[in-house]
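Escalation from tier 1.

The customer reports that the assembly of two entities below gives different structure tokens on two consecutive runs. Tier 1 could not reproduce it. I'm attaching the input and our single run for tier 2 to review.
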Amino acid sequence: KAGVTQTPRYLIKTRGQQVTLSCSPISGHRSVSWYQQTPGQGLQFLFEYFSETQRNKGNFPGRFSGRQFSNSRSEMNVSTLELGDSALYLCASSFGYHTDTQYFGPGTRLTVL
Amino acid sequence: GENVEQHPSTLSVQEGDSAVIKCTYSDSASNYFPWYKQELGKRPQLIIDIRSNVGEKKDQRIAVTLNKTAKHFSLHITETQPEDSAVYFCAASRPRDSGTYKYIFGTGTRLKVLA
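Tier 1 run:
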């Protein structure tokens, strides 16, 4: 099976802009979680989607949002970008809602200038 | 809030020696504890995991131990090799049905295996 894929891999934006990142889970996986990875804060949970519904959410401002489509692909949107949003954004998929094991994608490196 | 403390932040060992990384979690409802290895520029990869109903799990040179009472879990790598050099993350999660499910990651340990 193909692994988790994310597009784009690299992105450069300026403050105030918005960005949309995409994640395609492993075939058959229905749960997608998003994480922000920075050198200072490590890996922080953003939110999780299952069956097109946000099931759990971390402690991030409302500028961070997401959605999941019927084919389990997920998008994450960040509006009004700030310099501090520069990070590696990782998504991870798992088979089902009660399955804990997560498999990560390669990430999208976002740089905000 | 819940957190996972991970120590040490960096660890250097000679090739062939053992490496131990320790994590402490605060949420007593946590029941799943995975370990991830992240090589430079690559995605985190699951290397081993343990559930709260098990005290120890081994997979070749890698083992994880869990002490629920003390809320500690540790990663043990024996006979280290240069390719073990990477950043290792521990994580803890509570059951999804608990209403506030999320993975909480430790801050990572940079392991260097010296040839």
